[in-house]
Amino acid sequence: MAAYGLYTHIASNKFRSMLLLAGLFLLIYVLVYAGALIAEVVIRSDAPVDYYLRAASRDLITAFPYATGAAALWIVIAYFFHQNMIDAVTGGEDVTRKQQPRLYNLLENLCISRGIPMPKLKVMDSPALNAFASGLNRRQYAVTVTTGLLRTLNDQEIEAVLGHELTHIRNGDVQLMVIAVIIAGVVGFFGELFFRMFTNLSWNSSGGSWSSSSSRSSSSSSSDSDSKGSGGGAVIVVVIAVALILLAWLLSQVVKLALSRSRELLADAGSVELTKNPDAMISALRKIENRGELDGATSAVMELCFDNPREGFADLFATHPSVDSRVKALVQYAGGRDPGPLALPDDSADETEDEAEPPSADQLPSPVPHGPWSDAASPAGSPPSLPQGRQTGPLGPLQGPWGRRR
């Protein structure tokens, strides 16, 4: 279902969410069938291939209601507790206005200005510069921000990031992303379970049978030809089972391709619509660029984030467009100004410490107020600072380094 505008994008997300939920059941059935093939080989190792296929089909029919119930139970658990699972991975904690007045007020002002319900606000302790939204309904929506982002970005840039995440909630992107995380998680879990079961099997070359490595294998064949035939059938069936498990896992990863890259561009545009400040969105992107990797977070969680840095071959399957392409779109369609890649103060401070030697005590200058707009007299030999309110840039007077033109 192609999306040509905002409302068709929202409708497309709802349609894709239903398809993904249906796909979850289908992948579960594939895994159950693969597990039945392996179980039949363990039970009887001297049968032809068609026997194993028919027996596994009967096992699938028998297990069908149980598999369906297990998939439905997982959806129910994920529906109510997915935020707890995400918080357990990221370490996000709920914060109140008293704990984070600056962040809370910025988010509340955005919600009030557009009549958007106020989501929960969470902060995770991480030096990375990133944020993400989560939730499946209005009572569950939450926006999580890292402490590194709070320390590095100014109010206008944080407001732009919050507007981006609120747009994800408004457009229905959050539900689609959470469902993709649920599917990838459950299929990955069962896929690993079956692979562990397979690795515990051992082939008895003398008897032509598969058995558990923890138990003794005792089987014999009437002739060498029968032994080879039966063993060949078992091997073929095991290969088929492994191929099905791999297929299910690959499909669960392809699910993430349903998260169209256009959703990030639409969220950037929605943030500009909320804040009326494309320059703040661009400078936030430039500061976050290549600094958003969350330590310990799974790839599924990173798909939820404001920026998901990818390099090389992995970029072909990335669900986030590059920062350069996002900035280019904001410059072209929103009239923003691109300052280019930005070096944060911490980065330049580290480089200076590595290159410069510490001065001796008698070489230290007298203390002076820091900051480019200080009113104090400049030290001897240094250029005088600009008077307050007269800062200029290449495009005229500015309010702050990346603010609006006066």
Nearest-integer average pLDDT: 74
Report the sheet-strand fraction: 5-15%
Through-space gap between termini = 44 Å
Strand order of the largest sheet: 1-2-4-3
Q: Care to count the β-strands?
A: 8
Unreliable segments of 5+ consecutive residues: 203-207, 213-230, 349-354, 359-406
How many structural units, i.e. domains? 2
User: Roughly how much helix do the residues carry, as a percent range?
Assistant: 55-70%
Q: How many distinct helices?
A: 12
Largest sheet: 4 strands, mixed
Shape by Cα distribution: elongated
- Strand-pairing-aware structural class: alpha+beta
Q: What radius of gyration results from the CA coordinates? A: 29 Å
List the secondary-structure elements in sequence, H or E: HHEHEEEHHHEEHHHHHHEE
Word description of this protein:
- This protein is of the alpha+beta class.
- The chain folds into two domains: 6-90 and 176-258, no CATH class; 93-174 and 262-334, Metalloproteases ("zincins"), catalytic domain (Zincin-like).
- Helices cover 56% and strands 7% of the residues.
- It is built from twelve helices and eight strands.
- The protein has helices at residues 6-43, 49-90, 101-114, 147-152, 155-171, 173-199, 224-254, 262-275, 278-288, 299-302, 323-334, 345-355; strands at 93-94, 120-124, 131-134, 142-146, 201-204, 209-212, 392-393, 396-397.
- It has a four-stranded mixed β-sheet with strand order 1-2-4-3, sandwiched between helices. It has a two-stranded antiparallel ribbon with strand order 5-6.
- Strand 5 (201-204) and strand 6 (209-212) form a beta hairpin.
- Helix 5 (155-171) packs across helix 8 (262-275), helix 5 (155-171) packs across helix 9 and helix 6 (173-199) packs antiparallel against helix 7 (224-254).
- The radius of gyration is 29 Å and the shape is elongated.
- It starts with 5 loop residues before the first helix and ends in a 9-residue tail after the last strand.
- Mean pLDDT is 74; it is low at 203-207, 213-230, 349-354 and 359-406.
